[in-house]
Amino acid sequence: MALSIEDIKKVAHLARIEVTDSDAAATLSKLTGILGLIEQMQAVDTSGIEPMSHSQDLNQRLREDVVTKINLRDEFQKNAPILGNGSTLPAVGDGLYLVPKVIE
Amino acid sequence: MINSSLKQLGDLLQTKKISSVELTQTFLNRIQQYNPSINAYIALDEARTIAQAKAADERIASGNAMPLTGVPFAQKDIFCAKGWQTTCGSKMLANFIAPYDAHVITQFDTAGAVNLGKTNMDEFAMGSSNETSYFGGVKNPWSFDRVPGGSSGGSAAAVAARLCAAATGTDTGGSIRQPASLCGFTGLKPTYGVVSRFGMIAFASSLDQAGPMAKSAEDCALMMNVMAGFDERDSTSLNREKEDYTRDLNKPLQGLKVGLPKEYFSEGLDTNVGKVIEAAIAEYKKLGAEIVDISLPNTGLSIPVYYVLAPAEASSNLSRYDGVRYGHRAAEYTDLMDMYNKSRAEGFGAEVKRRILIGTYVLSAGYYDAYYLKAQQIRRLIAQDFVEAFKQCDVIMGPAAPSTAFKAGEKVDDPVAMYLQDIYTISTNLAGLPGMSVPAGFAQSDDGVSLPVGLQIIGNYFDEARMLNVAHKYQQVTDWHERMPELVLPKEAK
Amino acid sequence: MEWEVVIGLETHTQLKTNTKIFSGASIKYGAEPNTQACEVSIALPGVLPVLNKEAVHCAIKFGLAINAHIAPRSVFARKNYFYPDLPKGYQISQFELPVVGKGAVTIQVPAVGKNAAYEKVVNITRAHLEEDAGKSVHGAVDDMSGIDLNRAGTPLLEIVTEPDMRSAAEAVAYAKKLHELVQWIGICDGNMQEGSFRCDVNVSVRQKGTEKLGTRREIKNLNSFKFMQQAIEYETRWQIETLEDGGTIQQATVLFNPDTGETRSMRSKEEANDYRYFPDPDLLPLVISEADKAAVKATMPELPEAMKARFEAHYALSAYDASALTTSRELAGYFVATADAGADAKQSANWIMGALAAKLNAADIGISESPINAQQLAQLLKRISDNTISNNAAKQVFEALWNAEGDVDGIIATKGLKQESDSGAIEAIIDEVLAANPAMVEEFKAGKEKAFNALVGQAMKASKGKANPAQVNELLKKKLS
């Protein structure tokens, strides 16, 4: 499956990573190499083989429904990013994390 | 002192022949001296470290010490450690101060160990040379123009250069064993689920596993006694009875069946490395081991499978780095979409972005079955190879890496060549099996430099104690693990 | 041309647990922003999910309640997309293997106009466990949106129906029934204002008699039954008009505006979503054994269907009454307590669904907060049936009980409401009335039935309403014959 510049841009958009046209061209050649490596898989007949998501065949453990967490908002918000666009303040206000306006 | 085993250090501390503060200061002094050139540590906090050493001395004085109380360790910067800068080798987290402790960190704290600092690593553990780190490459202490391997390159260099008593690492596709091979020390990746992943920054969740990086098998065993154990905060943590990993160290190896997979000795393996491995196998024969020829027919597929599954999981694991709650946010952006795109483009390095894109691609509509599902199916075939193999032998041996340490910059622009570094290590991650790398000698590089070679030992699930025994007995009759590089500092650093 | 509307619902039911689905953070409503957002809720590097047992039990309860297949093995998957209220950049949900499979809910569609009430079975496609997202708050800070992650990770059961409903009335009846059921089995508090029960409604239209489904539009986040009815009706009309005008329907997500009563398409997405679902490697398969199911079943109350049947058989109630009394456990419990305290079952049903329901509605309170308890109501009904008071007097006693003026017998005594049942006394009154109203007597004898009623009225009036009306009737007839 040959990869195109358009594929790179589409995937980069899905992954929310800005790529310039020159980035995309460089990325294309590298990813094409990696996909070439991956293509080896297609030669294997895997019909009827159960996919393996985990290395051990175990079941999910369940947690008791008991509150164990305390409010650490202030501690956590010390790591808030810098707001940007001219402001050097942390991107928090009134206990909320601040982002550019979300439009629905 | 810097060459002493963990057991010796523990004894010196508990008999009060040295204090933890003295021991810790010795390592801090070495770090001060050598780290500027080696770049093994990316976060140091002497005051915090010395405070821990003081507390350890008090604990020893009060008679409540545990075997590793007061011993200074280096921690890979993939583990969240409360109050410590925790970056995972990325610009994205360059200013992140962890507000909580990883399980591994808690275990070391509980044992009374001292944290010397956070070690350099490939960004988000994606790399085999430590060259993807935002904080710069790490020198291989055996040859400064070469890489230490990766992704646990900082821990590897710190152990090899004796900038710590021992270190932690993590291994998703070989990130403990390949650097252990390239830097000449002992490293163990345990069975998946033996060490909790809580607080360990995720790369590929179904493959990531933390383990010890130390001078000897005995040291690794002592560290496993600290690191292993059930943790209810990790759904994949195994609830098994606590075991003493030192219990079998001295068992004789008479009758041990060692499987040699033919796929690990075929093309791609450096001839000089192959000779070192053969010599090590000969040594095992002398120790009474029986050699069995086996086959792991799907070994070649482990790299393609890995480079589908690991990037797929990573692409999703790394979505949380969006510049909203912590981490890097672009300085200028026009709207939400622009903020996401720029923050992530700036915060991640080239290799991480490549893997996110590959992972996103293989999971996207129309490709899932051909790539992701197919890779999971072949993953099962790879795991079944080992099930068959372990019907014929007790442990599997082979090289840990196809070559000795390569020069910095040599493979950095060729991801596929870089990925082939992990050809012998990846399949154990896919199967969830434990694997080790043990110093087995030295091989000449093309330019005539003598560089360490690691022998890989792969065990069956939960066979860590036996593997440590197999490694330990070898280390009783060889001294490769005791060799230490002569650190030659560049002139300006002296 | 006759059109048919086809409706399917997806309901997000917030599960009644103490903590989040994958962490031990509280889910209490109304906390200060981000004070219930633990390290897992805000997706700090290195954190991991561990599944809440109670959330799983809630899912099992629901599966049992709708007689569904409960998956012995289900899998959590990641739904990947970027949104500021989704801290991990993916939502943990279930995709290919949900915990609850096919089941069914029987609904009662009320009579509308000339159409009679009827029952209908709505098939459930699946129900799966997932985590809720946080909230975006607008306007708190200039030109920015604020993100509150207290809700992030709250356990949800998303319940999906087949496109089985054919009118807004059916959709609302289903939603109400589901709303009653999830509260009945105790898995959801049902609080729609707080978003504990949110419906997405898929609406399409097609020509009656055709098989192929039309293109659907999804009305998002309806949190009241009234709005649901309005939204579906508007959307249906809009789709039919669009098609009749020669237009086509584009698949879309729409929002209902209660102020205008209209639906409008959300800002169109630039690309079709590609959620890249894959099994979450941080979570293992959820395995539910027969023993697990049995253990959960043992903790469950009798289900409304079973209770309804029991009410019909044991209390000889009509299907309508039995159904109405089993809309909530509190209501059913009140009825049982009233009847079991010795009141007539039919009378109990009438009073509970009549006078009491009207009062509760007017006061906007639930039956559990009723100032009149079941024992008091039973006592009141017993005083009617043992002829101590008349129905009319009972209404006064009921009012007094509501206003907490005392117990039944006390109120009857204080207000002097005891009815006269001494036939001698009543005869005396009747004699007086007959003597005072000869004209009426004449009219009655001339065949005017109305005059009889007037005489009864006079007698009741003369007794100040205390005479037993049945006795008055009987004695008057005797005297006039």
Distance between the termini of chain C: 66 Å
Pair of chains with the largest interface and how many residues each contributes: A-B, 56 and 77 residues
H and E string of chain B: HHEHEHEHEHEEHEHEHHHHEHHEEH
For this structure, the quaternary state is: heterotrimer
User: What is the helix content of chain C?
Assistant: 25-40%
Instruction: Tell me the name of the CATH class of the domain at 6-259 and 463-493 in chain B.
Output: Alpha Beta
Main beta sheet of chain C, described? Answer: 8 strands, mixed
Extended strand count of chain B? 11
Helical content of chain B stands at: 25-40%
| First-last Cα distance of chain B | 22 Å
Main β-sheet, spatial strand arrangement of chain B:
1-3-2-4-6-5-10-11-9-7-8
**What is the number of helices of chain B?**
15
Mean pLDDT of chain B: 96
The main sheet of chain B comes to:
11 strands, mixed
Task: Output the radius of gyration of chain B.
Answer: 21 Å
CATH arch. level architecture of the domain at 6-259 and 463-493 in chain B: Alpha-Beta Complex
The CATH superfamily of the domain at 6-259 and 463-493 in chain B bears the name Amidase signature (AS) domain
User: Which outline of chain C best applies?
Assistant: elongated
Question: Which fold name is given in CATH as the topology of the domain at 6-259 and 463-493 in chain B?
Answer: Amidase signature (AS) enzymes
Q: Structural class of the secondary elements of chain B? A: alpha/beta
What can be said about this structure in brief?
Chain B is built from 15 helices and eleven strands. Chain B has 494 residues and is an alpha/beta fold. Chain B has a domain of 285 residues: Amidase signature (AS) domain (Amidase signature (AS) enzymes, Alpha-Beta Complex), CATH 3.90.1300.10.
Question: What's the helix and strand layout?
Answer:
The complex is a heterotrimer of chains A (104), B (494) and C (481).
Chain A: H1 5-14, H2 21-39, E1 62-63, H3 73-77, E2 82-84, E3 87-90, E4 92-93, E5 96-100
Antiparallel strand pairs in A: 2-3, 4-5
Chain B: H1 6-14, H2 20-38, E1 41-43, H3 46-61, E2 72-76, H4 103-110, E3 114-119, H5 153-160, E4 166-171, H6 177-183, E5 186-189, E6 209-214, H7 217-227, E7 257-261, H8 271-286, E8 290-294, H9 302-317, H10 336-347, H11 350-363, H12 369-389, E9 395-399, H13 415-419, H14 426-431, E10 435-444, E11 450-459, H15 464-477
Parallel strand pairs in B: 2-3, 2-4, 7-8, 7-9
Antiparallel strand pairs in B: 1-3, 4-6, 5-6, 5-10, 9-11, 10-11
Helix pairs in contact in B: 2-3, 7-15, 9-11, 9-12
Chain C: E1 3-14, E2 51-52, H1 53-65, E3 73-74, E4 76-80, E5 90-94, E6 103-109, E7 118-131, E8 135-138, E9 144-148, E10 155-161, H2 168-184, E11 197-207, E12 217-222, H3 225-244, E13 252-257, E14 262-265, E15 278-279, E16 286-287, H4 290-298, H5 304-315, H6 319-325, H7 329-340, H8 345-363, H9 374-385, H10 391-402, H11 408-415, H12 423-436, H13 438-445, H14 449-462, H15 469-480
Parallel strand pairs in C: 12-13
Antiparallel strand pairs in C: 1-10, 1-11, 3-16, 4-5, 4-15, 6-7, 7-10, 8-9, 11-12, 13-14
